[in-house]
């Protein structure tokens, strides 16, 4: 993100943001990579726009972006849905640009494609997109038509004030497993909503937080060595030796393997015997070879 403001003179300020909830419909939200203050030719005043950054790793997607860059330039200004937009923004990402514009009500969006060269990121192409109001409103209606039947019941005022869901609150199409998940996670959502809501009903952002996640989600992700989680956890890895991002990334992958191994061991030694007490059917206990695991940093 720092490279972007240094590269483009039209970007006057750049802010990292969290989750935006649509004021018009609380069922819908969006979490862009950032928000820019942008100077656009033909506009008397700077405009706000959402920023979406995609770091490409596959050679095919990098080559496709570089080809679009050679046709249209490194910095492109277009209108949502026109030929240049369709050539520069992959179809899989176009709805994301519109979704951000609908929730934030911004007239512009920015789509940045980057790649990693020699351990550092570099910008391949920047696409500045104008989103016409009529097109934004049309997509807003479509989003509401989908979101309200699916999520509207979660935002009834009496449930919010109560602070938790019951089985009777859920529509009949919600399965038993889904009800369990909803009842668990809704409590966190309602508690968070009360935290950021003033007495007059207006919402305000939370103070800066290092992390705000559902504990079950965090524990699940900790053993899932994906790129986002590796990046998040790597920032918290302490190491006496000077260690670059790649080294921390490897340590994080080792940590994920050990977490999964430990959970598998707990499943055999703790959970399986407990399950056996709930059912008269004997549960065969798998054999486990005990050992000592060591992590060596070199």
Describe how the helices and strands are arranged:
Layout: H1 2-7, E1 11-15, E2 20-21, E3 29-30, E4 34-38, E5 47-56, H2 59-72, E6 75-79, H3 83-88, H4 91-104, E7 108-117, E8 120-130, H5 133-151, H6 157-162, H7 176-196, H8 215-222, H9 227-234, H10 245-278
Parallel strand pairs: 5-7, 6-8
Antiparallel strand pairs: 1-4, 2-3, 4-5, 7-8
Protein name: YqaJ viral recombinase domain-containing protein
Organism: Nitzschia inconspicua
Give a verbal description of the structure.
With 298 residues, the chain is of the alpha/beta class. It contains ten helices and eight strands. Helix 9 packs across helix 10 (245-278). The chain starts with a helix and ends in a 20-residue tail after the last helix.
Q: Which oligomerization state do the chains in this entry correspond to?
A: single chain
Mean pLDDT: 82
Task: Report the uncertain regions.
Answer: 288-298
Annotation field: number of helices = 10
Give the termini distance in whole angstroms. Answer: 32 Å
Shape descriptor reads: globular
In which range does the helix fraction lie? 40-55%
β-strand number: 8
Q: Can you tag this structure with a few keywords?
A:
alpha/beta; 10 helices; disordered C terminus; 298 residues; 6-stranded mixed beta sheet; globular
Structure summarized in a few sentences:
This protein is α/β, with parallel strands linked by helices.
């Amino acid at each position: 993100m720092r490279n972007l403001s240094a590269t483009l003179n039209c970007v006057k300020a750049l802010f990292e943001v969290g989750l935006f909830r649509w004021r018009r419909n609380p069922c819908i939200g969006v979490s862009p990579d950032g928000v820019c203050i942008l100077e656009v030719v033909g506009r008397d005043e700077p405009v706000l726009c959402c920023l979406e950054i995609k770091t490409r790793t596959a050679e095919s997607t990098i080559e496709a972006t570089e080809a679009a860059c050679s046709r249209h330039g490194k910095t492109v200004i277009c209108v949502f849905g026109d030929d240049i937009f369709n050539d520069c923004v992959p179809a899989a990402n176009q709805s994301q640009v519109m979704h951000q514009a609908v929730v934030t009500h911004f007239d512009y969006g920015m789509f940045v494609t980057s790649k990693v060269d020699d351990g550092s990121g570099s910008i391949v192409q920047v696409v500045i997109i104008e989103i016409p109001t009529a097109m934004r409103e049309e997509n807003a209606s479509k989003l509401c038509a989908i979101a309200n039947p699916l999520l509207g019941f979660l935002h009834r005022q009496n449930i919010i004030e109560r602070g938790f869901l019951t089985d009777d609150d859920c529509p009949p199409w919600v399965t038993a497993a889904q009800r369990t998940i909803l009842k668990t996670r809704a409590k966190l959502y309602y508690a968070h909503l009360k935290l950021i809501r003033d007495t007059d009903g207006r919402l305000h952002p939370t103070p800066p937080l290092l992390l705000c996640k559902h504990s079950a989600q965090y524990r699940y992700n900790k053993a899932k060595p994906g790129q986002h989680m590796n990046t998040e956890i790597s920032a918290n890895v302490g190491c006496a030796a000077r260690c670059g991002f790649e080294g921390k990334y490897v340590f994080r992958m080792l940590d994920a393997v050990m977490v999964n191994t430990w959970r598998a061991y707990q499943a055999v030694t703790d959970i399986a015997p407990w399950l056996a007490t709930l059912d008269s059917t004997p549960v065969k206990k798998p054999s486990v070879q005990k050992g000592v695991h060591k992590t060596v940093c070199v």
